[in-house]
Amino acid sequence: MPLHVSFDPPILTLDASDTESSTTPAAAAQDLLRAALAPRFAVDVERSRVEVLTHLDTVDGRLHQAGIDLAHLPRRRRLVAIVAGVQTDQQVTGVRWPALATDLPAGAVIDLVRKPAWIRALIPYASTEADTTTFAVRNSDGKIVVRIHWTAAFLTQPASVRIAARVGIEALRGYRSEADQVRAALLETTSLVPSVESWFDTVRTLPALRPKVAERFGMQPDQAADFAVADALLGYLAELDATVDGIIADIDTEYLHDFRVAVRRTRTVLKLLGDVLPPGLAGRTAPEFRWLGDVTTPTRDLDVYLLELDDLAATVTHPDDLSAFGAYVRERRASAQRELAKALKSKRYTDLVESWRAALAEVIAHPSHAEQTASDLAVERLHKVFAKCQKRSRKITADSHSELVHDLRKACKEMRYLMEVFKPLCDKRAYKNVIADFKELQDLLGEFQDGEVQAAALRQFAHEMVQAGKVDANAILAMGELSGKFEARQRAARETLTEHHENYLGRKAAAHVDRLVRK
């Protein structure tokens, strides 16, 4: 059953204000159509129906990026996906939003959205109501030759907004010429205009759905260093604000991931650039953001295990033997999530956010006392941190202790976060080259650290499970096999790092860094 005939181009649109009348929308539409098409055609109401739609996507718009429009029609218990004008339907019952695609019943629509949505939940971004009246257009013989589908539409959530009326012209078989005449008459005698915009595009572009963006200055080369740093930190604070409710509600794991990235970026800026802020501000604030990093770590570590569990199980001889481990991790994760939600709803977190926002706003509101410009600061600190990465890299040999590898990884993270802060000032090509080098190096360092950390964590989990009586011998054997694979990954990463780290931090990379920012 089609979602709505007038949703498919080509259609005509009418400015919403033109449909406002003391009469009903259907009566106003009928008056307009009769006046436009008389005397050649007669116009009568054939039927009416109201469609309610819940528009769905991930919070970061992954379906839209993949060219998929998705809606839930609760009254008809249907999910509808439209891809390149082709509509796919699936029946669903008892669904509540937000929801992960992996938790929804399999079907044609879920098969379309599962891969692009991946681990992000499907959430409602709008609700609309479309009141459609179908008019029969008759010729002089009284035969129905054309149908006109007139839709008076409204955005109902997150705000109440009238949407431009949409008019679809359906040519019946054998009456294409009459349909063309009807279309020409409407364009000539009314304020209707042609449109190829889909219904979903119309909804997405409504002003009421545009995200509220906090006012920020944006970094400029000659901007005072303290203003530039405070402005960047306000951006990270906005990212915390945008994700915290999703973490507390446990909508999907990426809210916590994004929150932690914003926390790490903030901590890096406080450590490497905090000295340009008012005296003492960075020192007072850094411990609180370290607390945020610590309090979010247990849940995120367990999330990573659960996200990778199926892939990990596929690497062991008897995958089903890891089911007890999975159950134990889910139990631990539920407990860690409760503690995390409690922390993010605490007065300590609320006070931190409020005081931090006020402090940064005060930096921007008062005259700068910084001696450096943003570009001066960028050149100085980027070269300093890159030199630290090179120094730590030179200490690493095939026999070095793993702590030296971890130290290099920390320095590389600092370099990447610092580059992201100063990206508006960077040469685009040099930035792309340096980021590519550091991404490859960080992936390699991450493989090394993950191998060591996860092997150790598996041993700890095994001890805990044995003590709690929640494991059998087969599960312990499977976990031991998995731990061995992690250790092998660590060894392989160490060999690759020793062979190739000069490619990432050598002379060529240094030349790219020299070109990053010009004073």
Write structural notes for this entry:
The chain has helices at residues 25-37, 62-65, 108-117, 176-189, 199-204, 225-248, 253-273, 281-313, 323-344, 347-365, 374-394, 402-421, 428-468, 473-505, 507-514, and strands at residues 11-14, 42-57, 68-73, 78-83, 86-91, 123-138, 144-157, 161-171, 193-195. Helix content is 56%, strand content 16%. Mean pLDDT is 87; it is low at 1-11 and 14-23. The chain folds into 3 domains: 5-209, Hypothetical Protein Pfu-838710-001; 214-371, CHAD domain, CATH 1.40.20; 373-519, Alpha solenoid (CHAD domain), CATH 1.40.20.10. Strands 5-4-3-2-6-7-8-1-9 form a 9-stranded antiparallel beta sheet. With 519 residues, it is α+β, with helices and mostly antiparallel strands. The chain is built from 15 helices and 9 strands.
Topology:
Layout: E1 11-14, H1 25-37, E2 42-57, H2 62-65, E3 68-73, E4 78-83, E5 86-91, H3 108-117, E6 123-138, E7 144-157, E8 161-171, H4 176-189, E9 193-195, H5 199-204, H6 225-248, H7 253-273, H8 281-313, H9 323-344, H10 347-365, H11 374-394, H12 402-421, H13 428-468, H14 473-505, H15 507-514
Helix pairs in contact: 6-7, 6-10, 6-11, 7-8, 7-12, 8-9, 8-10, 11-12, 12-13, 13-14, 14-15
